[in-house]
Amino acid sequence: MKHISPNQVAGETAVKMPTRRALAKQQTRAKVLTAARRLFSEHGYEGATIRDIAAAAGMSTGAVFANFSDKSDLFREIMSDDMSALVESMREAAGRGRGVEDALLKMFSAGYAFYKTQLPLARAAFSVSWASQDGPVLRGAPQVQTLHDLIVEQLTLGIQRGELSQEAEIKLRSQMLFDAYLSNYPQAIFEGWSLDALQSRARDQIRILLAGARRG
Amino acid sequence: MPTDLESPRRHVARNPRRASAAADRASGPRQTQKEATRNRVLEAARELFDTQGYQGTTIREIARHAGVSVGSVFTTFASKGEILSQVMEERLDRLYAELDRVVPHLRGSTADRLRSMFAIHFAFEARRTKLFLSHIAAAYDWTLPSSTKPFGRTQRLRDMISDVLAQGVADGEVDPSADLLAMVELLIAAYGWTYHLVVTDGADVKVMTAAMDRQIGLIADGFRPRSS
């Protein structure tokens, strides 16, 4: 019995200490992510260095590397958080649509609204997506696949409701719709297009891409 | 990953070509040397962008491969983006000169003429696919001056597609009420997208051309006249 007491103390501290440490680690991660988000937005992916990010977060580069293996790891985490939120808002918007065209438009508009406030970050993501090393990783992110699936889902519903023909070539059409959605970002980034302009362009594109699959 | 240490703010001449026109009259030999430097830089850059991509290439490396100082690169070019822009402009001049000759003689439906036109693009770019990927990646570069023309801001491609579609309207193959501008943008987006296949699947010119053909078919479904 005399051994129990020391063991209990050790047990308690063993439980408590990691929690506090985990909490501190979580706060450190959050601080790094906030600083990184700002620097990627201001200087782009290439322009932001780990050293700058560490300085902005008020810590050493070593502390950053203790939490993230490299810059692309850090960037991936930021994009992953954003894209999860993006997927949810696009899914919700699609659910409010009346018919396939309207659902797709509402979905795309939700996407534009989401990123309109953080175009510099979107720009950094597009730039990375064309790099031969990090590009496939970003493009293969599960959230990207989910977004694609959301489009497929709307087209499938369109067929079930009889709006689209059975031979709607869902695979190709959904990929082209997704691509059309993405292709409008450069205009938003470089030419400062308004949300209305983006929506109107997206509406035209959706109409063209659905036209061949319309029944009758 | 290497980082471009040279800030574009360091550049000296805002418009080197115009600035050198006056210098030309003042000192011929210096101008010739400057032209030679320019060509060497462009040649070195073309090789590096094609092997290492846009992000993986630094101005410092370009200077080293060209056998000139970093400083002399900056007296001619404002930034890495501008060097690439010049490289691509010279290449695209040749592509579009070829297309100007060929496109008026293309036969077949509007969709087929578009297919032929893009097939020529792929055949041309496939010789240096990674250079073209650099060209697309540069469209998102922070430091690009407004004078540069990354992918998507190429007016000649836009004009050429518009001409083919306008001909299609005249031939009764394209719905006159169709939104031609949106069609042009969709085709350019599809063209750009097709290059992803190189990044993700290592696609060759045949695969890319086939993928584009299918996309053109789908867009053509959208512009066919609605009449029964």
How are the elements arranged and paired?
The complex is a heterodimer of chains A (216) and B (228).
Chain A: H1 4-47, H2 50-57, H3 61-67, H4 71-95, H5 100-116, H6 119-129, H7 134-139, H8 142-160, H9 170-183, H10 185-190, H11 195-211
Helix pairs in contact in A: 1-2, 1-4, 1-6, 4-5, 4-8, 5-11, 8-9, 9-11
Chain B: H1 16-26, H2 28-52, H3 59-66, H4 70-76, H5 80-102, H6 110-125, H7 129-137, H8 155-170, H9 180-194, H10 196-201, H11 205-223
Question: What does this molecule look like?
Answer:
- The complex is a heterodimer of chains A (216) and B (228).
- Residues 1-12 of chain A have low confidence and may be disordered.
- Chain A is 81% helix and 0% strand.
- In chain A, α1 (4-47) packs across α2 and α4 (71-95) packs antiparallel against α5 (100-116).
- Chain A has 216 residues and is mainly alpha-helical.
- Chain A contains eleven helices and no strands.
- Chain B has 228 residues and is mostly helical.
- Helices cover 68% and strands 0% of the residues of chain B.
- Chain B is built from eleven helices and no strands.
- Residues 1-24 of chain B have low confidence and may be disordered.
- The chains are: A mainly alpha (216), B mainly alpha (228).
- Chains A and B meet through α1, α6, α7, α9 and α11 of A and α7, α9, α10 and α11 of B.
